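Lab notebook, bench 4. We co-purified these components, and the gel suggests they stay together. Before we commit to crystallization screens, I want a quick structural picture of the whole thing.
Request: model the full complex, all chains together.
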Amino acid sequence: MYNRKDKTIAFLMISPSLILLAIFVYFFIGQTAWYSVSDWGVDPATALKKGVEKNYVGLDNYHTLMSSASDYEFRLAFISTFYFTIFFLGSCLILGFFLAFLLDQRIKGEGVFRTIFLFPMSLSFVVTGTIWNWLLKPRGGLNILPNKIFGADPLEYKWLNSDSTLFKFEWMQGGNLFYLGIALFAFALFTFVAQKRSLSWFWVVAAGLVLWLISAAGFWGKIWLPIDDPVRDIGTYQGYGYNAALSGIVIAATWQMAGYVMALFLAGIRGISEELREAARVDGCAEWQVYMHIILPQLRPIALSAIIILGHISLKIFDLVYAMTGIDNKYVKVPGILMIKGFRSNEWARSSAVAMVMLFAISLVIIPYLWSNLRTEKR
Amino acid sequence: MSKRLLSLCSLALVFAVMVGSFAPTARAQDDLSGSLEIFSWWAGNEGPALEALLALYGEQHPGVEVINATVAGGSGVNARAVLKTRMEGGEPPDSFQVHAGQELIGTWVAAERMEDLTFLFEEQGWFDVFPEGLIDLLSTEEGIWSVPVNIHRSNVLWYNPAKVAEWGIEVPATWDDFLAVCPAIQDAGVTPLVVGEAWTVNHLWESVALGVLGAEGWNGIWTGETDVMGEEFLAVWDTFGKVLECSNFGEDNAGLPWEQAIDRVVDGSAAFNVMGDWAAGYLTTTLELVPGEGFGYAPAPGTDGVFLMLSDSFGLPVGAPNRDAAVAWLALLGSKEGQDAFNPLKGSIPARTDGDVTNPELYNSYLQSAAADWATDTIVGSLVHGAAANENFAGNFGTVVDLFTASGAPEAAAAEFMALCESSGACGG
Amino acid sequence: MNNQMEARMVARYLWRVIAYSLLVIMALIFLIPVYMVVVTSLKEAAEAGREATAWDLPSKLNFESFETVWEDLAPNLRNSFLLVSAATVISALVGSMNGYVLAKWRVPGASIFFPLMLFGMFIPYQSILIPLFKFMDNVNLYGGLPGLVLVHVVYGIPITTLIFRNFYVDIPNELLEAGAIDGAGFFGIYTKLVFPLSLPGFVVVVIWQFTQIWNEFLFAVTLVKDRWQPITVPLAETAGGISVNWNQPMAGAILAAIPTLFVYIVMGRWFIRGLLAGSIKG
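Here is the predicted assembly.
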């Protein structure tokens, strides 16, 4: 087997896919990258012209996004996504683990429960968004549910339109803790991966160095990227932070994806041999200790997978937000939406820059993951 | 499991075929055949007017299959984003809705995406029936670029006459009057002014600015003659802030469609609403109210004698796949018959000067009064609805309003307005 | 001793009661939106728009919303079915071939291009959107279903390849070598040995692609003309637009959800496997 001719055929058979992906992924990303450093659409009069000449403007568009007073929207979206990811991940992981834990108690009718928890996963984000849009109406839905069940006063929470901003910090001002936080979080994540994947210390040190560079860049950014005119920056008045209006999106997204995490965890728990658990019990471990010492540590790789999958979904979230709030909600802003909104005013270069920032953020999560996965596979 | 899968697949296929067989088939032959795709944002309550036009088109050209492509979202907020991908994708619809004025000229015409319609205007004799000022809005030196179907007025104040009488207040003639009467209305437990989602707030701003600056000052913004950092302009922001304090802004306006906002005027939980006169269409057609009885109207405070206009028009994109059908569509749009079929339902007045506006069977008393104003008032173009400023300015103007509502600082808003003027090149010079 | 055992029994019993009640409560919470959707969709337009009575059962059962929505959305449902059938079949075949090559043939450079392929399934599609619709214009595929099928096939390559590769890796090499000794070449081994074993792989991939493509929105809204739009686009319009008659969006949501729900409920087990496969380590 494996003679030269067949090997050539094999390569020929896979090459169309490779060529297509080379075009549709890498070439297109390259083009978007080029648009993002061009002036396409800066002059609105020529933005739509066929074959319009695009000039190289360096990192101007990025610089503008990060520092111009009028691009408050983008910075808010950037930060919102960061918070959204944290809350969405947190609630999915906790709820998913909790459900998996409950279902692991030799439950009768496990299949029924599993079906109920998992079915939202089969829906489109658009369907989920439509449903929750209605459930989160200010004078109906969830707000009056306590009233319907317990006769309590209806809530007045403005799920999708709250104007209160939590966890505020100032953009590029005194944000040291923010960068330190990110760096520490990323570092913890990485050492966690490294430990699980038994990477060599070389990589840990290298990663530490990279993270140090990132946070240094953050501090440097404070000098390079202050808001050009704080008087004109909405953030100066509202503050940058987690806008409470995102809570509605977090709830809808959690409803949809928590079951997925549950399924992952449940598969993981079931994968741990019963003997191991029994042995621990015989040794006098209480059930919770079994979980703490036997099961949880074994679930770490699965938790990591879940974090990556959910993380990349949340960093590029678009359709759910579109269906729930449209593209003009004053409080709910995410980059995926801004990118499309830019079409309206023909700001192609700016939209491309927004897309590239999204790609960059996702790459930070995905590339190390792919890397470590494929490395361990080789061993 | 495999059997299940197979049966599922075949089921899906059967279903697909079944659904496929319902696809519309070509009808009797006529002078024109093929299809016609019309792109607009007239869905929901604004749908019937468009459908009346399409029905008329169907009678005239039964061979053409009309595809009514609508993207919902008031004032075209979503539609205009989607349309861009269509144009950039090289598959323009056959004809699409565009606001007359800078939205058309500043983007589409500047990008050489539109076909010159001078031939159609000549052929149909439209130079005599459309007001000159309106044709100017649709033209550059190179040609005429779209066919106007209607005229809307942006600066209208809506109220409920019975309630206003009950509360014993007068309809304010200026914004100062409104601010004076505001506390009394609030004391009665009523919202003095109701606003809706983001774009309706921008819409309100336009009427406030016009009321404070006057027609000349308003036009001066777009020619560069009005100093947008000057005292008078700061007064616009100042008044706007006070007006918002008399409204439901920041309470429950976000996400509130304009129809629901005006519903509150009708049911008496709010006293006034500033909205374009498409509201008249909604009030009379959907809510079946009689103008002057079920609802009252007046020029927005301080704008008496000024008509802040916008006009929906349809153009012919270069490379329209069904050009002939599209030209026939545009001819219908500009015809007296078409305009008189469309406008009564839409709640707008015809763009043609010879429309049957005095016919009470077609045009209700609101529209008759609007037509009378259109003939006598000073005409100025709307910012929010694409007449006065290009898309870049109009698209980012919301940020200026957001900045003002966040900061409450007229100076900050004025500075941002100035910056936007410069970056978009919308304010002359 | 006895007492201790009894106490343990009681504790265990109590714990089971708690676990079951927690599960039931969670299940109810998860089903809240379902209740709301069904109830609202069965109301009359005016009643459906009233927020204060949103939780009440319809005062009169009314299927008008389904009639209207069916009328409006039937063409879009047809589009979705056409799109999904074509794109799913093609991408499953492509994925199977790629998976076979990557799992069983030591192709030079695979260790480099395989991760590069996989990266393609994580990118935010916004980052290729503008060049994509210009490209579709250039190759004359913008606006119709064939173009959308192509896009879904291409961006489906990474995941389908991955699933099939992981599936084929488990087929023992000895089996294929035996085939090779019998004189079968690249295609012979595939058609005689690999393909017949592939059914479970195909099921997982078909389910995965079916739900993914059915549910997709961004390409659907930007790459096709109105008449070819899949169901998700008009659904987002009815909910995002000015429509205040919530019975219609809810009925639309049900229509749009039925096919994927059906797949999920009928083939739940495989669905889960598909989900797990989505996490690289299939």
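Chain B touches chain C at residues 1-2, 4-5, 8-9, 12-13, 15-16, 19-20, 22-23, 37, 39, 43-45, 67-74, 78, 82, 85-86, 88-91, 93, 257-260 (CB under 8 Å). Worth comparing against the SEC data before the next meeting. The first helix of chain B runs from residue 2 to 20.
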